[in-house]
Each structure stands twice: as C-alpha cells, then as structure tokens.
Write a structure and sequence with these properties.
Elements: E1 2-5, E2 7-10, E3 13-20, H1 36-65, H2 67-81, H3 83-96, H4 100-116, H5 121-141, H6 147-150, E4 155-159, H7 164-169, E5 175-180, H8 188-196, E6 200-202, E7 216-220, E8 225-228, H9 232-252, E9 269-274, H10 280-285, E10 290-295, H11 309-322, E11 327-331, H12 359-364, H13 366-379, E12 384-389, H14 395-415, E13 423-428, H15 431-435, H16 437-440, E14 446-449, H17 451-458, H18 477-492, E15 496-499, H19 510-516, E16 520-523, H20 528-537
Parallel strand pairs: 3-4, 4-5, 5-6, 9-10, 9-16, 10-11, 11-12, 12-13, 13-14, 14-15, 15-16
Antiparallel strand pairs: 1-8, 2-6, 3-7, 7-8
Helix pairs in contact: 1-2, 1-5, 2-5, 3-4, 4-5, 11-13, 13-14
The structure holds phosphoenolpyruvate and magnesium ion.
Length: about 550
Amino acid sequence: MEKYTGKTVFKGVAVGPVTLFNKADDQIKRYKVEDPDAEISRFEKGIEDTNEQLAALYDKAVAEVGEASAAIFEVHQMMLEDEDYTDAIKSVITTESVNAEYAVAVTGDNFAEMFASMDDEYMKARAADIKDVSNRLVRVLSGASDSTTDSDKPSIIIADDLSPSETVQMDKSKILAFVTVHGSTNSHTAILARMMNIPALVSVDINLNTLENGCTAIVNGITGELIINPDEELIAKAQEEIDAINEKALLLQQMKGQETKTKSGREIKLYANIGSVSDLAYVLENDAAGIGLFRSEFLYLGREDFPTEDEQFQAYKQVLQTMAEKKIIIRTLDIGADKQVDYFNLGQEDNPALGYRAIRICLTQTEIFKTQLRALLRAAVYGNMAIMYPMITSTWEIEKIYEIVEEVKKELEAEGIPFKVPEQGIMIETPAAVVISDLLAPMVDFFSIGTNDLTQYTLAIDRQNQKLDKFYNAHHEAILRMIKTVCDNAHKAGIWAGICGELGADTELTEEFVKMGVDELSVSPSMILPIRKIIRDME
Ligand code: PEP
Ligand code: MG
C-alpha cells in the first residue's frame, strides 16, 4: 500500500481500478539499459501479453461484429510472431542497449515506412497495421492502458498531465476519478473535472512507472489523498465515505424544483456552466435555472479542423431546445492560452495568457468569428439565448463586435435565413474592464465576472502554474472589491451582474456575494443545489 497527497480539484471519493492514461507515442522515452538480455526477456513477455490481449479482442469482436471484421486482430497476432519484426527489435535492444519500448517504436516506424513504400496496395495498407500493433506492444510494455479492452470498466485515470482537449475526448461515464502528477487547480482540466462531478487530484508526486495498470486505488478528494493498493479496511472506510456523500446529495434533492430566493424574497439567478452539449444531462439533473456560461470553444477542441457553421448551429440549437425557455448564455470562442488547437496555428508565444486569445482572435480573424456569429444568430430563434464576449478590455472592442454582428445580420437577411439578434453581454475578467465598468455597462445587456482570469490578471499569477497555487488567493480583498464595483456600475446602468468563474461556486462567499448585489451565479452543475440551499437559508 502506498499513500500520496495532492491538491484537491473536486471533493469526492472514489475506489476502483487504475487506468494509466496513455499519451501519444511521441512521449516514448529512450533510456539505456544495463542488461540487454533482461530487456529482451521483458520484450518477449510483452509479446505474450499483447498476444493475449489480441486474442481477447478477437473473441470480443467476433461476438460483436462478426468473424470477417474480427480477422484484423488475427492479422495483428501474426505480425507479432513475424521473426523479421521481432529480430529487428531485439537487435535494436542489444546493439544500442536501449529500452524495449523505444526499440519497438523505432522498428514499428521503420517497418511501416517500408510497407508504405511498396507498390502492392494490400501491402501498403499493412503499414497502418504494423503501427497499430507496435503501439499496442509499447502500451503493454509501459504498463499503460489498452483503451479498447478496458473501455467497459469505469476506472480512475492517472496521468502525467491532461490537456483540456484530452479531457473532453474521454468517455465521462467510464471515469471514476482523475489524478495527475502535474496540473494546477485553476486549469481548464480542473474545471472540467468539477463540471463532471468527478473526484480529482492534481500535483500528486507519483512515479507513473511504478504503477500497474488495473491495480486498485482510492482517490479521496476531501483529504487530497491517493492510496494505491489499499487494504480491505481502507476500502471499506472509503466506501462508507462514498455512501455518506451520496446520502448528503440525496438530502439536497429536496432543493430541486425550489426557487433560489432569500427569506426576504430576493431572487438570484442560479445557472450552470457547461462545455458541451453532453453536459446538459448534469444541468437537468441538478435543476439549474439556465446556463450562465457555455464555453463554446470546447466545440473547437479535440478535432482536426474548424467546426462548420452548421455543426455549431446544431449544437447551439440542441442546447436551446433541450433547456426549453430557460436562459442560455453562450460565450463566443475563448481559444488560446491553455486551450490550444493545432489548426488555429496560433504559434508560440512567450506569454500566452497575455497573448493572442479569445476576442482578440475573433476581432483579427473575423471570418472565424463571423461563422460562429452566424450559427449563434440562427440558433437564437429556437429559445432564450444570450451571447457573451470574453476578455474585453476596451469600449472599442464592443463597438467593433457590434459592427461585425451588424454585417452578419445583413448577410442573413439578404440570404433570407431566419435569425434573431439576442441579448449581448460581456465577461468582466480583466482589471481594465472592472475599472471602466461604468463605461462598458451602458453598452451591453449584462456583465458576467470571470473570476478565474480576473484573479490571474489582478494578482499577476499564471493560473496554470502549479507552483503558484498557494499564492492564487481568490478571496483576495482586491477581487472582492472589484466584484462590488462591477455590481454597482452594472446596477447604475440598469443591467444585471453575475459571476461565472469558479469563485461563484465558493460556498464560503455565497452570502457575501448576495449582500454585494450579485444578481446571478453560474456554477458547475454539482454546486447548484448546495448553493440554492444557502441562499434559501439567508435572511
Ligand atoms: C473565467 O476566467 O473566470 C472564466 C469563467 O472563463 P475561463 O475559465 O473559461 O477562462
Ligand atoms: Mg476566462
């Protein structure tokens, strides 16, 4: 049994098998081995295990898709037995005294290249198979997961680090908890874990090479502990904690269908944050009054090319229709900084958080922005939508946005396509926007304070930097005063102000926010009912 501690991202408890998250093969490390013969034995054992895996896959595939389609796994088994292939790998291990994973990856690449250059179409197509089987063998050797065979069992994902795009691509129903060696509690990956209601720890100092795929672990998001191979007693204790958490959640169910009003009758809009259409289930389950932040950039992550106008239109329409007449605030593309997408070709920047991101991209590459606006205006016909613009620092940006919206409107009119220009608000997430919030308020329909970035920019702390977590004080007096200023300036102009950053879900501050005049809180779905309870208990 080994115990590790990390920083809590979401306070739940989970027990289950571990899946080591497998990064792309460019992560394969080359290292020297003292005893090449021992490495060859390890390689041969790897071949045996991979063969077993393929045989199991073959049986599964025969049952699910028939013999003809399953035959590919037999071909892969044959490749593993090919002596040219295995001898080449052994030779790399012996002549270079290197690890088996590296030897397999290099040999796999060489063989794939050789097949790809052949004239025969059938042999050409084998290039992909040899890559595939080599990748599988590398995964087995490095103890990483085989996503195909493990996909049925929910498990605890342990990774070196996870990018937001890797996280969005995962099948959430198969994840019991997340644990990463790196990562900060304010990153978007952390936000996603909170959204999914999944226990999660970051900054856990564990050597992934010592971990066995499939071993049992406990993740305790309350104490910040990860326990590998726990004894029966600890498993039973963790199960008790899980039951207690479930019981508490059951009690909170009484808050469903209730209004979010203080005892004196002040109503607070209690909305949910989402990243994709699939998050709607959590929103409905937790009875949010609407969506206060739909991070639309997640539609752009984890894919090879821009989502088309129609793909976006369908996604927005689906959210609006599913939520019926409830308010849906869709934030326009906030790409850049930690949310990187290759096809945007944003290039390297010394300070990405202070760089080319969000509205700055939209106001520069206006075609990208216009495609999104067209999709939004078209979808607005189907429900109660509002658009929200991120990273605003100046009044001219809003003027420019409105000019572009006007162009889009004219184009849609000319094409005879039905559309609606919905309410438009902005995120207040830069200190500049706070200071000029009196000037910005008359120009827009609402403010939503993005405390994640506002804290980062006000305290000069990179929210991605795990070393700075202890300095990242979102309760800092400067932030609280800023929230008050924004609310006051919003109310003077007759508009509402809310909070959609993570601080909005901080139950220690709920009462203070209500007293300050915050009109809306948009939080991860799992926090809706606890916050409703606090507000309903307030005088
Ligand atoms: C914020 O900055 O507080 C916010 C809500 O936006 P994001 O976390 O997506 O940057
Ligand atoms: Mg932000």
